[in-house]
Amino acid sequence: MLVNDSGLKDSVKGGSRRDFLRKMAFGVAAATGASSLQASVTAFASSDTHGGSQGSPLTGSFQGAFKEAPMLADLVKAGKLPSVDQRIPSNPRVIKPLEAVGKYGGTWHRAYRGPSDRVGPSKIVEEMLIDWDAPDTKTIGLVANLVEKWEQNADASEYVFTLRQGLKWSDGAPVTTDDVMFWYEDINQNKDIRPNADPLIRQKVGAEYKLATIVAVDATTFKVTYAAPNPLLPIAIAKTGGFPNPPSFLAPSHYLKKFHPKYASVDDLTKIATEKNLPAWQALWGDAGNMEGAIAFWFKNPELPTLLPWRVTVPAPADPCVLERNPFYWQVDTEGNQLPYIDKIEHAFFESLDVVNLWVAQGKIDMQMRHISAGSYVFLKENEAKGKYRVLNWRSASTQAYFPNQNCPDPVLAKLFATPEFRQAMNISINREEIAEIVYNGLGVGRQASPVTGSPEFDADLVKMWAEYDPKKANDLLDKLGLTKGSDGIRKRPDGKALEVVVEHISPTGSPENDQHELVKGYWEAIGIRATMKAVERSLYEEHCRTGEIEIGNWGFDRSSVVKADPGRWLGTIPDGPWAPTYGNWYAKAAYKQEEPPADHPIRKIWDLWDRVQVEPDEARRNALFQELLGVHKAAPMVIGVVGEIVAPQIASNAFGNTIAGYIADDTLRDYGLISPQQFYLGRA
């Protein structure tokens, strides 16, 4: 259940339409409740071979002649494109449509916030070697995707991947292990391009990071060998193998060699960078290894060959930003129709969520979940008929959270933030139930930042830890720390200055998060902490987090479904959740400001446990170690979770097909990437 019978659901009273809609949302969300991920992926049996469908309704089979979109058939007739059977692998991945075989054509209209909103479009198009597989709303598995199969040895220290025969880049060039070796040798072992190699091949063994060895067996098969067992690799690939660049383990060598100093002169590369107003040739590839440069990032470079269902043709900051179908896409439906069904995706720019809501009500959005808020749920339901759309409720695995930075530039604040009693006071001063009720229409649960209900890592005690509303106890804790109140009610820091904090966030105008910030500001000021809520642009926020130049950050504590696939929230290594960013940089050897934590800091125990989890081949022992890691956070939560498991409304026009309600929305699962957007279509009856 999203909420239990004695929880928030009981606080919804009265018989108004607003109350009815809230109860209805809970009823839908409850269907995705406690059992949602109980059958989740685990490590595979040793010496196993993996591929095929694993019984998923989103994976099917096909035999016969391939078919294609009319716009591509016209290009074939004009001699501008090879025939469809020459463009698709001999064994394409076959997708069984979620509801029905779709119709070709049309433009999918969405909304975005500009270049910094790059993650939204990315989650629609990402492709990994291995993909999440969702047989139903309660089960998550894995399926071979860009590869036709993968094998692993007994202790999961060696993996063999076999690419699909005949796989092609979006420009028609063949995908081979030459692209794997280019990615491995020329990108990941070039410090100018990537100061640190991709995490999927950079393994922490003891105190050292060791690079995996990759060998091309033949044109379609490659072997990856690690210094120690790596049993979590398949789920890590499914989570991290797409954004922001072509899939991990692959890069279009025939194109990118033109921008690599091994194959082109530095003078020529510098000239190209200058023409693009970049400071150095390395910026063509990205900043400090982020692979978001002008030539390396698919979202910025229309010429970059990709393996995605749609490729960018009009990049951000254009309004609209446009993606168009990839004629060499390598998936088909159960009738042999080459996917995707939809020809084009247009992202219209917005600044205020009020604009997005207006577009929805006017029927201008075909399908969207990102930037569609539970705070607008009543409005969305009231305008369904007018806007000719459905509201399909998913459940968010993210918890709205605040991250006090233990590494912030102000040493007095840094010491306070590192003090468990201070964080506890900040936590229990917040009335989470009031926020859930007022801000999120009762469509969320007051809780601590923790794994979502139904996750294999779910911990009922952690959900409640420091999450009660007790302002009296909060005041007592601060009093015991010697932080006395002045005549204005604001406490004095140990250095005599007023106890003031700045909270940075990226919440757009009109978002429920802005209302949440104002309530939190009031709660903290009621216990003597003056808070300034400061809205900043996303790229600036991310920069402040990476460098530690932030006091408190606000972000969603996500990646809470299959937690071991991406535990960075718990390790302090994800910059947008800056509870200890420079410590995290030190641990990850990141290319930003680093600071070694004190020997007795609990983050060291967290890291030690994670290092052991990663190389533990025994699943039961691995799970026990991870629960011990969560126990460190349970003893003294590092962050301030507020409201989570919020209804995640998805807007789908009545004409938009092959999307349904009931799934968990999480970054780890790639949001609606989980249900294969390439099988969405326009023309639903």
How are the secondary structure elements laid out?
Blueprint: H1 17-30, E1 49-50, H2 70-77, H3 84-87, E2 93-95, E3 107-112, H4 119-125, E4 130-136, E5 139-144, E6 147-152, E7 158-163, H5 177-187, E8 202-205, E9 208-211, E10 213-216, E11 221-225, H6 233-240, H7 253-256, H8 266-275, E12 310-314, E13 321-325, E14 331-333, E15 344-349, H9 353-361, E16 367-368, H10 377-382, H11 384-387, E17 389-396, E18 399-404, H12 411-417, H13 420-428, H14 432-438, E19 445-446, H15 460-464, H16 471-480, E20 500-505, H17 512-526, E21 530-535, H18 538-547, E22 552-557, H19 568-571, H20 581-588, H21 602-615, H22 619-635, E23 640-644, E24 647-653, E25 656-657, E26 664-665, E27 681-682
Parallel strand pairs: 2-14, 3-15, 17-26, 20-21, 20-22
Antiparallel strand pairs: 1-6, 4-5, 6-7, 7-11, 8-9, 10-11, 12-13, 13-15, 16-24, 17-24, 18-22, 18-23, 19-23, 25-27
Helix pairs in contact: 13-16, 21-22
